Amino acid sequence: MGTGNRGLSWRVPVLVTLVVGVISALLTHRLMAGGTFPPAVPTLALVLLGGVGLLVLWFGWAVRGYLRGRKANLDPMRAARTLALAQAAALTGAALVGLYAGNALGLLPDWDLTISERLLWSYLGGTLAGGYLVVCGLLSQHWCRIPPRENGGAGEAA
């Protein structure tokens, strides 16, 4: 489902975002109907998401350097793990975007309350951090792409 030879398609994170967003909005609306507010996004979570995004980019940059001939050696397992990390980061970020955007949508009917305004700002930060993680993951995956061979000779299976 989107992870063939071309890697994780941008459509998969969009689908994850939409599914999680709808579920999150419905659950938040249900919580609010019962008089309970959903939790805010912790500031530490935003900082950690930023750090994970930087880490994904750093690992992807090393693979990119190797593929472009600027790095002498790279363990193939590290390259494969970097690709898996990049794809996992993109999917996790997409789920977080859906979660926090869905929470914000569920709060919109009560946006005039002071606590709702604070929570909406919190969810905006979480949505942006999740989007950043999606971009970092997809970019790192792109950097891990091995260019196609120019000569279709001995190395390819019949």
Automatic annotation (TrEMBL):
Entry keyword set: Membrane, Transmembrane, Transmembrane helix
Superkingdom per UniProt: Bacteria
One Pfam assignment: DUF3180
Chain ranges passing through the membrane: 12-32, 44-67, 79-100, 120-139
UniProt protein name: DUF3180 domain-containing protein
Organism for this UniProt entry: Nostocoides vanveenii
